[in-house]
Design a protein that fits this description.
The complex is a heterodimer of chains A (1218) and B (309).
Chain A lengths: L22 E4 L4 E6 L5 E6 L2 E6 L8 E4 L9 E3 L8 E6 L2 E6 L9 E6 L5 E6 L6 E6 L3 E6 L8 E4 L5 E6 L6 E6 L2 E6 L8 E4 L5 E6 L6 E6 L3 E6 L9 E4 L4 E6 L5 E6 L6 E5 L14 E5 L6 E9 L2 E2 L2 E2 L2 E8 L3 E6 L2 H6 L37 H13 L14 H14 L4 H8 L1 H6 L1 E3 L4 H14 L4 E6 L4 E8 L8 E8 L11 E4 L7 H20 L5 H9 L4 H10 L6 H7 L3 H16 L3 H4 L15 E4 L4 E6 L3 H11 L3 H13 L11 H6 L3 H14 L3 H30 L8 E6 L8 H6 L6 H15 L2 H22 L2 H21 L4 H10 L6 H5 L1 H11 L3 H15 L3 H8 L3 H6 L11 H4 L5 H14 L4 H4 L5 H5 L4 H15 L5 H10 L5 H20 L3 H18 L14 H17 L3 H9 L5 H11 L2 H4 L8 H5 L13 H13 L11 H5 ...
Helix pairs in contact in A: 3-17, 7-8, 7-9, 8-9, 14-17, 16-17, 19-20, 21-35, 21-46, 22-35, 24-25, 25-36, 29-43, 29-44, 29-45, 32-34, 32-46, 34-45, 34-46, 36-37, 43-44, 44-45
Chain B lengths: L4 E3 L8 E6 L5 E6 L3 E8 L2 E9 L5 E6 L7 E6 L4 E8 L9 E9 L6 E6 L6 E7 L3 E8 L2 E8 L5 E6 L5 H5 L10 E6 L4 E7 L4 E8 L6 E6 L6 E8 L3 E8 L7 E6 L4 E6 L6 E5 L3 E7 L5 E8 L1
Antiparallel strand pairs in B: 2-3, 3-4, 4-5, 6-7, 7-8, 8-9, 10-11, 11-12, 12-13, 14-15, 15-16, 16-17, 18-19, 19-20, 20-21, 22-23, 23-24, 24-25
Classes of the chains: A alpha+beta (1218), B mainly beta (309).
Chain lengths: 1218, 309
């Protein structure tokens, strides 16, 4: 057809499947400009992320992506129009122009030159129409530089207007020496032989000129357009300042260019209209010369402002006959690349008819361009001149701005260059995801719509399925070849294990109507032939069923492969499918996130009435909200961390000084940050565009508002979603700019830490002094004093109140030792019955309230306690609620040690009668296993017989006697204590004390000591278990019990049903204590109530599995142990878990051994069975030493006969002998 | 109140987007558009920059310290779509004075758009990190059995901006007569669809399911915060670009009934943060002011303090 267009082995434009179609391609990139390759097959989109080369003949293939991240809008990108230089693409990057060589293999070195002479942003690039190495750039700095790419280091010729920035530069199409540029309202014509002065200046418009275009035929004629809504036609040789012709448009004109055919002018509105308008340069027949030139046609299609348009042509001129055909390619702010099919009738109306004579003086540089795509990296082209290699290297460094080598490059205006460059790295808005998005064929394909293409159905199906199944990776998609390769994990392994499958699927051309695709599994070790045959057979079945319905089978096949539906289900789905409800049944059964999202997405888009393109979550970085630059976050300890952006007045002053006009824009976008949120209108005014260095950016911004204004929700969603992120960039840019400009130590952000702990109800100073364990009233008294000292009168009073409540309750308990022992004996006597009747916890409560039924009293659990909790909850005082629950919990279980020591020999007493300072140190785990078994065993055996276990608990510190309220007891204890001191070392204590010494303890002697008194204490109790006495008391308590029996649950001061909540309070408070570095207190709090069965289950409920599952990240550091586990007794840095677990397991698993006569008497006392078991066990089990080491054995080992005597002697008067 | 401790020279070369003190309040992590995270040692009134973490390829939006029982772990999320997990390892375990190194222990990059917020679950629930991304998905990473696993699910159509966990034992679960099975994992998300959603973990299906959708905001929800205080009421605060903060409360007796109170401001709002105790809410917004709010005994929210830089 055309002699000039040689039919290439691959294709010519006449084989192009898209040339004669309307189509659109969605490119979700911040594209600023577009250009077309000489052969018209590729278009290049210049975005802030780099270049995207799209093969228009293979629109389903994702573009080639050449990254070049920049915060600046790409003002212009130009593909060399010369067939001989069809690998060159020039794009702007602020004040630099990058010369890309697409023939180079990898993106690293594809920037061949960086043209850098402008000091401000480049606004336009234009190749000479005559010489393939010449091009011109113009910039906001008012310069026009002409470059010879053979010597790219500096401009060959420069012109300057000196006053106003240039918006456009264009080489004359007929005269290689003449260049036109536009500066504000002025059109200047330059001649490269005439030096620094324009050969002609025309004040062409009333407002800034945005478009200049030379006539393609007449050497002196050119066209300008402006926001003043006119397009004017000039002859620069004419003496007058009046245009030859003029078109008045209803919109401000952003660009108007002569069509490459006939006498058309295509005008692109700057705002207010998203169509392109084709005007004729010739008046209609019979029209008067004064009339406006006629509008021939409008090209609709874009939903946003059109940003760039170009013509794709094929065919050529042969023998003076014009055979060219055209297609219009447009890019809009809706991020659609559209291809508009040209109706010959329209062309006719601007004087073009295919096959007519051709005006011979037209200069076609594109002639003879090889019809090829640069989307695929060509290997047949080599870098021609060796020089460029060096420059490439340099440019490669510069491109990776922020690299250390960068600053060393000596280029004019290095400062601004570095500035831009470093910003580049700093702003950091370049997501890797772009690269990913580009390479994700599905995301890409989704955006491609081609009318009248059969392929579309397949492409649509693939992209639909690709959308839906996020777990399926589409490794390659070739719609033209009708084959795809997917990989996924499906339950095809042994026992339904997940198995990695890779499937190649080919779709015959008659698919889906009358053929099914072929499935080929890539073999791996796990994918056996047998398996792949089976799956293939099933897939074929599914595909055939689908074919019978004339439907695509890809979704069904993928579902099946993923194991989301069985073969039967898949078939049923296909057959029974009616519209939308397909998904739902499947959804529920499986993880099906992918299908969920679809539905969610859909309903939302419906609700909001947004078009789906705008809601598309993939590549959703457009949706990234504006960055937060100010914030306040609480730290755990009541400090508030605030961060603020730099003070604005400072920075704007800086900007002004430096005279950066862009900063106007930036500070304006700052307003978005400031939240003035003055809406979009601000952005569409002219001044914005003027200050805008990159003309491209402004029309995006100005285009959007018009669209987004009407509905309110729309506006907010739209403007924020799409347009604010841009403003984010801007202001970040401003910040970045500031960095460089300021001295290195400049203040940028303010981070301040405010201590507001005084505002919080939780006080560390109190926590460190509060006591948690001990006798309720004493604790309360102590805590009241602490609060008073610290000046918290309210708290002090409340502690006082609680003390009163508890005091009465605990009177009998703490009265005298004798009484206590007796009571226990009584309890023992009744214990069996009671225990059977009541849950363990109820028992002590019943007994406690036997004294005064505070639980029912309004000042007890009926009113006062809940009211207190309520109050502290309301003010959020975790400390008080936790402490209250501790103290009241203690109260509730006041007598429990007496009872439960039989049940759980070591633990309960431990949890209660535990001095806050030293008690912890006796924590059983430490001594576990470290006590030499030999040393303690013989003794232990003997001791155990008499006084089983229990003692560990006591942990009575020196002040224990006081708590117990024992009158003279203390002194006795003291003496026993001293005795034990001397005695201890001789038996088991040396290893223990040395062990203890290792702990972070207040001192050694208390450690040793506290083992002792506790022991004697309990021992005395233990020994004082006279039957006779117990009988006497039994009566009393029996009555009491009977009396209480009716409502056991109401006896405690705490609401049992809220036990879990109290536990949570304590856990929360314990957390705070840990954070305050008060591990002792933390352990105490955690200990409270841990050992009731109820609690144990609760604990399991809340924390179960946690310790076993999670410990720390790989290769744990010491730190990882430091956080004390909820398991509790550990305190920092000691792994108490194991010791703890051991202890529990030992007692829980205590073997049942036949009772021996020697214990029978004790049994009659109602002492728990376990105690006896323990005895036996301790004599028999090799683990007994461990247990003793943990507590029982420990204290027993320390026990001497003397002690026992002492104790007995104390106990005797009260309890009598057995 | 003592004068605030000011770190005026953070060393960041660009805007700071998040800052957080660790569990013990000894270290401060900040993150910035300069793609770095900086860690400061805070000792008394002094502070010292100890580390700069580089690894993100975009602005770092959020940092979050894990509970110390898991080690010294920091999670960060960025515009680049990645969530990175950093861990401090002492170079020499025996010498406490010896330096320590931060290493990136996990790189989660399955999100296809900016990850706007990350949040660690209460430590009782395990080592769980929830991530909110502009791609509309939420992912929950779990470290368990020496392995990172993740679950990703769709949450908000136009992007998820924020996420916050409920305390492990939140009010409703504690008081209800039938305690729920297993640990409670529950969190709240705020999205660009102006909605707030509450999610519950179903231990049987091992999935997170939305149980509540709170509507009320008329613009993007930028931040949500579930009050960490375990009280008989649950509190969720949400900050939105509609210039309001809403405080959602639900009573223990009726845990699925949320009612909200609205605090109005003059500016878009960015962050809300609850104090660990006392339920004081810190609100920050576009005017670069911070205010503290507290519920009075009548149940009304009052501003108790204003903070400006």
């Amino acid at each position: 057809m055309s002699s000039s267009m040689e039919p290439r082995p691959l294709q010519s434009a006449f084989e192009s499947p898209t040339f004669a179609e309307d189509s659109s391609i969605h490119v979700d990139q911040p594209v600023g400009s577009m250009s077309i390759s000489p052969c018209g097959r590729d278009v290049v989109l210049g975005s802030k992320e780099g270049l995207h080369v799209i093969d228009l003949d293979s629109p389903y293939s994702p573009p080639r992506y050449l990254p070049h991240h920049t915060p600046w809008e790409v003002a212009d990108v130009q593909w060399s129009p010369f067939a001989s230089r069809d690998y060159w693409v020039i794009s702007t990057s602020n004040q630099k122009a990058l010369v890309w060589n697409l023939a180079m293999k990898t993106w690293q070195n594809s920037i061949e030159h960086v043209l850098h002479a402008h000091s401000r942003a480049i606004t336009d690039i234009n190749f000479s129409a005559f010489h393939p190495d010449l091009l011109a750039t113009c910039a906001v700095d008012s310069f026009i530089h002409c470059w010879d790419l053979r010597t790219p280091s500096r401009p060959a010729i420069s012109f300057s207007d000196w006053f106003t920035g240039a918006t456009q530069v264009k080489w004359n199409r007929q005269d290689p020496h003449v260049i036109a540029s536009s500066h504000d309202r002025f059109l200047r014509i330059w001649d490269d032989r005439m030096g620094a002065y324009p050969i002609r200046s025309i004040e062409a418009h009333g407002t800034k000129i945005y478009g200049v275009d030379w006539n393609r035929v007449r050497p002196n004629a050119l066209t300008t357009c402006s926001l003043d809504k006119t397009i004017k036609f000039w002859d620069y040789k004419s003496e007058t300042d009046t245009p030859e012709k003029m078109i008045r448009t209803p919109f401000p004109v952003w660009r108007a260019r002569n069509t490459p055919f006939g006498w058309g002018v295509l005008a692109m509105p700057q705002r207010g209209n998203s169509d392109l308008h084709l005007y004729s340069r010739r008046a209609g027949d019979g029209a008067s010369p004064n009339e406006d030139l006629p509008l021939v046609h409008s090209f609709p299609g874009h939903k946003g402002q059109v940003k760039e348009f170009l013509w794709r042509s094929r065919g050529g001129v042969a023998d003076g006959v014009d055979h060219r055909e055209f297609q219009l390619v447009t890019w809009g702010t809706d991020r659609e690349l559209r291809l508009h099919r040209m109706n010959p009738e329209i062309l006719e109306r601007v004087g073009y008819e295919k096959g007519k004579t051709y005006i011979s003086n037209r200069n076609i540089s594109r002639l003879g361009a090889v019809y090829r795509s640069f989307r695929d990296v060509n290997s047949d082209l080599e870098v021609e001149d060796p020089e460029s290699v060096s420059s490439i290297r340099q440019n490669a460094t510069t491109q990776y701005a922020g690299g250390p080598g960068m600053n060393a490059i000596v280029v004019p205006h290095v400062r601004s260059w570095t500035r831009g460059a470093r910003l580049d790295s700093r702003v950091g808005m370049q997501p890797r995801s772009n690269l990913r998005a580009d390479t994700n064929p599905i995301a890409w394909m989704r955006g491609v719509k081609i009318s009248g293409w059969d392929i579309e159905t397949l492409g649509d199906e693939i992209s639909h399925v690709g959308d839906k199944f996020s777990k399926v990776s589409f490794e390659s998609v070739d719609v033209r070849q009708r084959k795809i390769s997917i990989s996924l994990h499906g339950p095809w392994g042994v026992d339904g294990d997940s198995l990695f499958l890779k499937v190649d699927i080919k779709f015959p051309t008659s698919y889906p109507k009358s053929a099914i695709p072929t499935f080929a599994f890539q073999k791996t070790a796990a994918v056996t032939d047998e398996l792949s045959r089976r799956i293939t057979a099933d897939l074929r079945t599914i595909a055939e069923i689908c074919m019978s319905q004339k439907r695509g089978c890809l979704e069904g096949a993928v579902r099946y492969l993923l194991g989301e539906s069985s073969l039967e289900e898949s078939i049923a789905l296909v057959l029974g499918e009616t519209g939308e409800n397909v998904k739902s049944p499947v959804n529920d059964e499986l993880e099906g996130e992918s299908s969920d999202e679809d539905e969610v997405g859909m309903t939302q888009s419906q609700e909001l009435g947004l078009s789906s393109e705008l809601l598309r979550p993939v590549n959703a970085n457009v949706m990234v909200p504006v960055a937060k630059v100010c914030g306040a976050l609480w730290a755990n300890d009541g400090r508030l961390v605030c961060f603020f952006p730099p003070k604005r007045d400072k920075s704007t002053a800086l900007f002004d000084n430096l005279g950066f006009k862009e900063m106007n824009r930036l500070s304006r976008s700052d307003k978005v940050f400031e939240g003035t949120d003055d809406g979009a209108s601000d952005y569409s005014d002219d001044s914005y565009s003027e200050t805008s260095s990159s003309s491209g950016s402004s029309d995006i911004l100005s285009g959007l508002p018009a669209r987004f204004q009407p509905p309110q929700t729309w506006r907010s969603a739209g403007s924020i979603g799409i347009y604010r992120p841009r403003s984010t960039n801007n202001s970040q840019r401003s910040a970045g700019g500031a960095v460089v400009l300021k001295p290195p130590d400049a203040v940028l952000n303010f981070v301040s830490i405010h201590d507001f702990s005084d505002m919080l109800p939780v006080k560390r100073e109190l926590a460190s002094k509060y006591r948690i364990c001990g006798k309720g009233p004493d604790v309360c008294a102590h805590n009241a004093a602490v609060a008073l000292d610290a000046g918290y009168y309210e708290l002090a009073q409340i502690w006082g109140l609680i003390k009163l409540v508890l005091h009465v309750r605990s009177t009998p308990v703490s009265a005298i030792e004798a009484k206590k022992g007796l009571r226990r004996a009584v309890l023992g006597g009744n214990g069996l019955d009671l225990k059977r009747a009541l849950p363990n916890e109820e028992l002590p409560g019943g007994l406690a309230s036997a004294v005064i039924r505070w639980a029912d009293h309004p000042l007890g659990s009926h009113w006062l306690v809940p009211a207190l909790f309520d109050h502290f909850e309301r003010i959020g005082d975790v400390q008080m609620v936790a402490l209250l629950s501790c103290v009241l919990f203690d109260a509730k279980q006041e007598i429990r040690p007496d009872n439960s020591q039989e049940m759980y020999p070591t633990e309960p007493a431990f949890s209660l009668d535990f001095s806050s300072r030293y008690g912890v140190l006796t924590t059983p785990p430490y001594s576990t296993g470290t006590t030499p078994p030999n040393a303690s065993r013989p003794r232990g055996i003997v001791a155990d017989r008499k006084m089983p276990s229990q003692d560990v608990s006591g942990a009575a510190s020196p002040d224990q006697p006081n708590q117990r309220g024992g009158s003279g007891f203390g002194s006795v204890l003291a003496s026993s204590l001293s005795k034990s001191f001397t005695f201890g070392p001789s038996s088991a204590s040396p290893p223990i004390s040395s062990l203890l010494r290792k702990k972070p303890s207040p001192g050694d002697s208390p450690n040793t000591a506290n083992l002792q008194p506790m022991q004697s204490d309990t021992e005395s109790e233990r020994l004082v278990k006279p039957r006779g006495k117990s009988a006497r008391f039994k009566v009393t308590f029996k009555n009491q019990n009977a009396f209480d029996g009716g409502d056991p649950g109401s006896n405690s001061l705490l609401d049992r049903s809220k036990e879990g909540l109290y536990r949570a309070y304590r856990a929360a408070y314990a957390d705070i204590l840990l954070m305050w570095d008060l591990p002792v207190q933390q352990s105490e709090v955690l200990k409270i109530g841990r050992f009731s069965k109820d609690e144990a289950t609760l604990r399991d409920k809340y924390y179960g599995g946690q310790s076993s599952n999670i410990t720390s990240l790989p290769d744990p550091t010491p730190m990882s142990d430091s956080g004390s586990d909820i398991e509790g007794l550990d305190f920092q840095r000691h792994c108490a878990n194991c010791g703890h677990a051991l202890k529990r397991s030992i007692f829980a698993a205590a073997p049942a051994v036949p009772e021996t006569p020697s214990k029978r008497h004790r049994r009659k006392h109602g002492v728990g069975q376990k105690e006896e078991d323990l005895d036996l066990w301790q004599t028999s089990s090799p683990f007994a030493s461990l247990a003793r080491g943990m507590g029982g054995g420990l204290s027993q080992g320390l026990r001497s006969k003397d002690d026992r005597k002492k104790n007995r002697s104390i106990a005797m008067p009260a309890a009598g002998r057995k | 109140m003592a004068a605030p401790q000011v770190i005026s020279n953070s060393g960041h070369e660009d805007m700071i987007h998040d800052a957080g003190l660790d569990y013990y309040g000894r270290r401060l992590a900040t993150c910035s558009s300069d793609r770095t995270i900086k860690i400061f040692e805070i000792e008394g009134e002094s502070h010292r920059l100890v580390e700069t973490l580089k690894g993100h390829e975009g602005a770092v939006w959020c940092v979050a310290w894990a509970h110390p029982k898991f080690g010294t772990i920091l999670a960060s999320s960025s515009y680049d779509g990645k969530v990175l997990i950093w861990r401090e390892q002492p170079q020499n375990a025996t010498s406490p004075a010896g330096g320590s190194t931060w290493t990136k222990v996990f790189d989660f990059s399955l999100h296809t758009a900016s990850v706007n917020m990350v949040s660690w679950a209460p430590h009782e629930s395990g080592c769980l990190l929830a991530c909110a991304s502009s791609d509309g998905h939420v992912s929950v990473l779990e470290f368990r059995d020496n392995n990172w696993t993740h679950q990703t699910f769709h949450a908000h159509g136009m992007g998820v901006n924020s996420i916050s966990w409920a305390p492990a034992a939140f009010a409703g679960s504690l008081i209800s007569s039938t305690p729920g099975p297993g640990q409670q994992r529950r969190f709240v998300t705020g999205g660009s669809d102006n909605l707030i959603k509450i999610w519950d973990y179903n231990a049987e299906t091992k999935t997170y399911n939305p149980t509540q959708t709170l509507e009320g905001h008329s613009d993007w929800v930028r931040d949500v915060a579930w009050s960490p205080s375990i009280l008989s009421k649950s509190y969720i605060a949400s900050a939105s670009q509609d210039k309001t903060v809403r405080i959602w409360t639900s009573d223990a007796s009726n845990p699925n009934q949320w009612s909200s109170q609205t605090l109005e401001f003059d500016t878009v709002l960015w962050r809300v943060s609850w104090s660990l105790s006392g339920n004081i809410l810190a609100v920050s917004g576009g005017d670069n002011k911070v205010s503290l709010w507290k519920e009075n005994l009548k149940g009304q929210w009052e501003k108790v303090k204003d903070i400006e830089e």
